[in-house]
Amino acid sequence: MGWMRYFRRGHWDEERARELESYVEEETADNIARGMSPLDARRAAYRKLGNPTLIREDIYAMNTLTRLESVLQDVRFGARLLRRNPTFTLVAVLTLALGTGANAAVFQLVNAVSLRTLPVSDPHELVEVRVDSHDRGRTGRFMSRRPMMTHALWEAVRDRQDAFSSMLAWSPAVFDLGGGGELRPAQGIWVSGSFFQMLGVRAAHGRVFTPADDVRGCSSPGVVLSDGFWRREYGGDPGAVGRTIRLDGGRFDIIGIAAPGFFGVEVGRSFDVAVPLCSEPLFRGAESGMDRLDSWFLAAVGRLKPGWTLDRASAHLRAISPPIFRDTLPPTYLPETARSYLEFDLMAVQAHTGVSGLRTAYATPLTILFGVTGLVLLIACANLANLMLARAAARAREVGVRLAIGASRSRIVRQLLSESLLLAVIGAAAGLVLARWLGGFLVRFLSTDRVPLFLDLAFDWRVFAFTAAVAGAACLLFGLAPALRATSAARPTAVLGTRGATDGVEPFTLRRALVVAQVALSLVLVVGALLFARSLRNLTTLDPGFREDGIVIATLDLRRAGVPTESRRAVFDTLLERFRALPGVERASEAAIAPITGSGWNNAIVIDGALQPGIVNFNAVGPGYFHTLGTRFISGRDFTAHDAVGSAPVAIVNDEFVRKYLAGADPMGRVFHWQDPPGREPAPRYQIVGVVENSKYTDLREDLPPIAYVPALQEREPGPSLEVILQATASLPIVTGAAAQMIREVNPAIAVQFETMERLVHESLMTERLMATLSGFFGALAMLIATVGLYGVMAYMVARRRMEIGIRMALGASRAAVVGMIVGEAARLLAVGLAVGALLAVWAARSARTLLYGVEPSDPATLALAVVVLGSVALAASWLPADRASRAEPTAALRAE
Amino acid sequence: MPRRDNTPMQGELLQGTLDLLILRTLVIGPAHGHTIAHQIARQSDAVLQVEHGSLYPALHRLEDRGWIASFWGTSENNRRARYYRLTRTGRQQLAAQTRRWDEIVRAVNRILRPAE
Predict the structure, then answer these.
(1) Where are the domains of chain A?
(2) Which of A484, A545, A856, A868 has the fewest CB atoms lying closer than 10 Å?
């Protein structure tokens, strides 16, 4: 009831006033009856009642949520003060917005990648089933982004387990929407028939798959489109259901559109089309992983039965593992590989937040980004605390007076804090806007055409809670110390408004400490920025052992071209010949694996009957490959057209191979081979005919690995795809246009995809570029804030010491001496900050070691550069107030007091 | 200030006792603040002097709880005055509070005069 009256307080107060008045009337009447004079009677009545206003105030207070009232009052007061200092407010809000915004943006990413639960029914029951290889690694063909299971393993687990009410399997793939010519990629997934039902995802239109859609040997399965793809490609037309879609040249019926918001179970990726798993052989043909026991391409998820826990499921899976692995043992395994395969276990891993390879890939970068944005926030807080201290000093008199006339300390602290809180709230709100933008920028930065990144960055309660926590912590950080300082008891002089000639040292220590902290933390960020920038520079300027400019990689897919295996070589040769004849194409050759695409083929090798340690990277290349890529020969010869099927197996190795396996001895004529597979014909014995310089194989960061090249022409059963490496002199569109035209002429059913080496390099350095860009931006920002902070403190100090400086100059101190004194003071602060910062930086940089390339975390040159840059900028900033002080008329300074 | 007055027993009214006394006074019939204060003083032979500074807040509090209700009326001296009357809940509360008071008095007495 009390709070209801809150809204009619005015009315109630009037009532009380009248009531008290009537009391006084009554009492006065009584007193007159007792014989008092009217005047005395009234006075006596008032004496008896007491102060009516106080009584009314008591009652008024009862009618309110007093605490709230005073908080609102504080906030209103704070808002008024902030309005009166627009510059301060703007600076404070901007700094806070940057601080909280940056943190919220990184958190958004962490949230989207790791914390959000899947938008499916009862996600907490989902677990992923994986193979625990006990760190011995699995062997075979890995044919997807998430190669957790072979098809045989999946079927065995599905049929024999008892822990899950239902299970699903899926595998990502890229399908070609076009009909020959340049590839139009669509992100696809093969899914088991149980996929949608098990996840509880319904169709928005049409229907989703049922187990009846996924039957071994299916020849014309339907497909389900994702909501996003349907809107993009079909404009959201419900009539799309029932039409057909072309995937890798085949026609498939669209049977339904999945519910909006559903992206599958892999976080960070989304699918365009879902196809039943049974159709995998239709797409991959002879390359199908369905019946090959060593082809890892599936991932499996189960839904726990009621009452089953993750641990129980894991124990159950381990218990049924031995027979499952026994029954699915690939016959091609070497005895050693087979032994470790039989020791594998199945295990269950929580999957309510979906599965994602991004989590490990982004773990270190995100942690470091969090550290960076956290530091930025700390620096911003230190700077704001300094500003608040300056304001508190300016308001010392006001606070002193209020304390003197009886305001409680806690009330004033509360009021000063509410000003900080107001700033924090406005800053956080602006920060959220910034976070939205920055989060989008991060996702776009990390997303490429080939591997689009799909993350739901929508704000949820976690983002809000996190931002609120950050803002609250920031508010306490920058607001509490100044508020406590402003109200600390022993400041009677504040009221008197007198100032000593030199001003006390005491209130200054905190400000100095804050500047030292800012400088120290900024140095950490500047060092980090320089380290990342140098890593990126090292990576972009290193010699990868092949040329980047002008190199175009054309991937030709002949699966639909109807070329039988035996005539493929002839078609390849024709294509290569015509590639070489294209205008603007200097050279062309072929390779099984183009460098730094991430693909690989490796094997242990045997030399002189002895199995060698470590593994060797292999590649099958055509004549002219090295010349095309600009990889230099050290000795020996290139492959020729004569190194073909039927001729003696030959190989070219790189320098590292020679150093590692042949101890630098003359490699020409030496022979190596990989281990002979059991029960099949022995592996070819390769004789080394040439040595080339080292080059990168999988990515730019790796140490130069040993590589063995074998002739592509000696491949007896060429696959249905051809990777052509072109050295182009004309611009990319001209080359690809001409090439596409030429390929159509040869065979219109060949699909082709073009890629440039420059883009491959660019994309492979995405993380480095992101870290360098962001840490550079934040490092510069931190430096700016710290410099402004130092400038502010020096300017403030100079202002407070005007009289002292005036006296010094009146007594004959030179301008240089004054400047020297003040700059010297700043230099001392800087020196302490830089020393502390250097220690912090060396310690912090170790966590970034895995992201650095070609530079040590404690690189002295980097550290020195950072110290010099930050030190000189900050010193220059402190010279300004010093110079100003030295120009002041001494008499003016003295007269001001 | 009268709030700091040295009227006998005034400052020593037990917490909640004032509420009880007000409720008891209103059993006889509606009364305004002035009358209530006088009634309490008179009936306690002037031992209990109600501090007016707390009387009005107390009335407000009781009304807030719904134990008493108020209306404007005309006083014996023909002046407009705010009258208070006991509500049904107020009556129940009075009974309950009185019982509670008796218990406390008995308990305190048992301690103060164990021999009797």
Answers:
(1) 2-64, 123-352, 361-496+503-541+766-895, 559-749
(2) A868
Residue A22 to residue B60, Cβ atoms within 8 A: no
What is the DSSP secondary structure assignment for residue A586, as one 8-state letter?
E
Tell me which residue has tokens 């403190």. Answer: A793
Nearest to B56 among A25, A27, A55 (CB): A55
> Is B2 in CB contact (< 8 Å) with chain A?
yes
Name the token pair of A177: 């929407």
Within A200-241, residue ranges assigned H as helices are 227-234
Rounded to the nearest 10 degrees, the angle between the axes of helix A396-404 and helix A461-487 is: 70
- The pLDDT value recorded for residue A388 is 82
CA atoms within 13 A on the CB side of A389: 25
State the ipTM, two decimals.
0.72
For chain A, the residues whose C-beta falls within 8 A of a C-beta of chain B are 1-2, 5, 15-16, 18-20, 22-23, 25-27, 29, 47-51, 54-55, 58-59, 62
What DSSP letter does each residue of A162-210 carry, written as one string? -SEEEEEEEEEEEEE-SSSEE--EEEEEEE-TTHHHHHTPPEEEE----
SS (HEC) of A367-409: HHHHHHHHHHHHHHHHHHHHHHHHHHHHCHHHHHHHHHCCCCH
Q: Mutate one of A21, A22, A30 to test the B interface: name it (highest B CB count within 10 A).
A: A22
By CB atoms closer than 10 A (0-12, 13-18, 19+), residue B116 is exposed
What band does A279 get if pLDDT is binned at 50, 70 and 90? very high
pLDDT in tens, A612-634: 988 899 999 999 999 999 999 99
Query: Coil, strand, or helix at residue A255?
Result: strand
Percentage of chain A exceeding pLDDT 70: 95
- Which residues from chain B sit within 8 angstroms of residue A23, using beta carbons? 32-34, 52, 81
- Could A29 and B80 be called an inter-chain contact, meaning their C-beta atoms sit closer than 8 Å? no
| Domain residue spans of chain B | 7-112
How far apart CA A318 and CA A131 sit, in angstroms, is 10
Chain A, chain B: beta-carbon pairs less than 8 Å apart? 68
Q: What pLDDT digit, counting tens, does each position of A783-838 carry?
A: 888 888 888 878 877 877 777 888 888 888 888 888 888 888 889 989 999 999 99
On chain A, the residues whose CB falls within 8 A of the CB of B87 are: none
Architecture of the structural domain at B7-112: Orthogonal Bundle (1.10)
Nearest CB to A62: which of B1, B57, B75?
A: B57
Nearest CB to A16 within list B2, B3, B56: B56
CA dihedral A744, A250, A720, A722 (to 10 degrees): 40
